[in-house]
UniProtKB/TrEMBL annotation:
Keywords on record: Hydrolase, Kinase, Metal-binding, Signal, Transferase, Zinc
Gene3D superfamilies documented for this protein: Metal-dependent hydrolases
Adenosine deaminase domain residues: 223-481
Keyword Kinase assigned: yes
Named cofactor requirement(s): Zn(2+)
Domain of life: Bacteria
Protein name per the record: Adenosine kinase
Keyword Nucleotide-binding among UniProt keywords: no
Gene Ontology molecular function terms on file: kinase activity
InterPro entries: A/AMP_deam_AS (IPR006650), A_deaminase_dom (IPR001365), Ado/ade_deaminase (IPR006330), Metal_Hydrolase (IPR032466)
PROSITE patterns: A_DEAMINASE
Signal peptide stretch: 1-24
Native organism: Chryseobacterium paridis
Length: 502
């Protein structure tokens, strides 16, 4: 310490001691400082949360656990801030914090996608049980890609596909290879990857798998069970509708997807009556306005039939490659007319600003549309007027920190834009986006990342958790019930943790 001080003296000369102490004693200065600190805090997204005595106790414990964890990684010289999620996953899983966050009630998962929910290893293990399941084991063509899975009737198997079970049994290394082909990893922060091309290949590989009705039901049952186990009580899926089929009946109407999912939910509810599901009808940004007009008609028809399941509409896929939200303005202009025609409202839940570029202006549209929740909103911070409007309009940003890192939008998670949103009073919730593609399930990992890298406290955690129900598409009555359950679970969690943690 002394050596360091002498070095500074040599470099900068003697400090003006008198002047320093005068500033420190200046009470107006101190008062201003205190006042400003208070005013800054009052602007934060969680300013309205008052913690109970036991929540304050838990907060102190969690603060200390994180402090110890960080000190430990420092001691071991672990590069916490320059490592990717995949590199840190074992460390996260072995941490006390993760154990705690796994047990934390998480409310709802508001942002996830059909095809991105259920564990990839489970997908392979379950698909191979069907003798009609095949895998494409040739080089990519324009029709199929290596590792693509599908169900086919005997005698109708396209060239290049082989029995999945036979392939897995005869080639021991193939299971690992196929698992890797279904996962997207950012091996290290400096490895080059064409993220979206690779990302979309993961969905292509299972695209023929999911509409097969018997597998479809199993897939969502497993996905929901995993969520429930992870203390997620509500889920909203950006759902891309596809006609289900089986070999006895051929194709089923779109409605069958909804009624089948309702049946799956009912089954889950036998054990977990609190569990609920909403679907957000999703189409693609790479389509043209005419096609989206047709998609909107289908969405309205479905919502009229299932007003309690279908909640709204979204356009997904890579924003950099797709059309802007503004280019669909004629479609949005027809929403009111369609609402009158079908007697239901169709709020938008658009992905907007999943980008770090100021040339992507999708976020600007949000404040002018009936769009209560925004997918990602990463570049919202570069549009201050819009950020202000979204805060005032009380719209929520669905944040998916791990997804953002895997897809290359953020590297050091301390610099995630959501921190700026939170401190500026923009409401957010924590989401996993496509956990099966990123190699995990549940919301524990995303909460871990947010808690550690964004230096959150229990107040912030609580607000994020409760936001996921407050801003959900549940109707007023459903919301009330869901909140009763969440409150009870939350209090139980706080109590249990206080008893367990030193
Ligand atoms: Zn998404």
């Amino acid at each position: 310490m002394m050596k360091k001080y002498i070095t500074y003296l040599l470099l900068f000369g003697f400090p003006l001691f008198g002047c320093q102490s005068k500033v420190a004693e200046n009470s107006t200065y101190q008062q201003n400082w205190m006042q400003l600190e208070k005013e800054n805090k009052a602007l934060a997204f969680d300013a309205d949360i008052q913690l109970s005595e036991s929540e304050i106790t838990l907060d102190k414990k969690l603060f200390q656990i994180r402090k110890d964890f960080l000190a430990n990684t420092e001691k071991q010289k672990i590069s916490l801030y320059n490592s990717s999620f995949d590199q840190l996953k074992p460390l996260i899983e072995g941490s006390t914090l993760f154990e705690i966050l796994q047990l934390m009630p998480k409310g709802g998962l508001l942002h996830t996608h059909s095809g991105g929910i259920t564990d990839a290893k489970w997908v392979i293990a379950t698909a191979r049980k069907y003798k009609e399941c095949y895998v494409y084991d040739q080089a990519d063509t324009k029709d199929f890609i290596f590792g693509q899975l599908g169900f086919f009737e005997e005698g109708k198997v396209p060239r290049g596909f082989v029995s999945l079970n036979k392939k897995l049994s005869s080639q021991p290394g193939f299971e690992k290879q196929l698992t890797e082909l279904l996962l997207l990893k950012r091996e290290s922060l400096c490895t080059y990857s064409d993220y979206w091309i690779e990302f979309e290949k993961r969905f292509t590989r299972i695209s023929l798998l999911l509409p097969y009705r018997p597998f479809f039901k199993e897939y969502y049952k497993k996905g929901f069970e995993d969520l429930v186990e992870n203390k997620v009580q509500h889920v909203e899926i950006r759902y891309v509708f596809d006609e289900l089929y089986d070999f006895k009946h051929g194709k089923y109407p779109l409605e069958t997807s909804v009624t089948d999912l309702q049946d799956v939910v009912k089954e889950i509810q036998k054990q977990h009556p609190e569990f609920s599901l909403k679907l957000i009808y999703s189409s693609f940004k790479f389509l043209d306005p005419k096609s989206i007009e047709k998609q909107l008609e289908i969405a309205f028809k479905l919502k009229k039939e299932f007003p309690n399941v279908i909640s709204g509409f979204d356009l997904v896929a890579d924003e950099a490659a797709g059309n802007s939200i503004y280019s669909f303005r004629e479609d949005w202009a027809k929403l009111d007319e369609l609402s009158k025609k079908y007697g239901v409202k169709m709020p938008l839940f658009l992905h907007a600003g999943e980008s770090v570029s100021v040339f992507n202006k999708n976020i600007i549209d949000i404040s002018s549309l009936d769009n209560p929740r925004i997918g990602h909103g990463l570049n919202l911070i570069y549009f201050p007027k819009t950020m202000e409007l979204i805060r005032k309009q009380n719209k929520l940003v669905e944040v998916s920190p791990i997804s953002n890192q895997v897809l290359g939008y953020v590297s050091d998670l301390r610099n995630h834009p959501a921190r700026i949103l939170l401190s500026n009073g923009v409401q957010c919730s924590i989401n996993s986006d496509d956990p099966s593609v990123y190699g995990y399930n549940g919301l524990g990992y995303d909460f871990w990342v947010a808690f550690v890298y964004w230096e959150l406290d229990v107040k912030a955690l609580k607000k994020l958790v409760f936001n996921s129900i407050h801003y959900s598409s549940l109707n007023e009555n459903e919301k009330k019930q869901s909140l009763v359950y969440l409150n009870k679970e939350w209090d139980g969690f706080v109590q249990k943790m206080n008893g367990k943690l030193k």
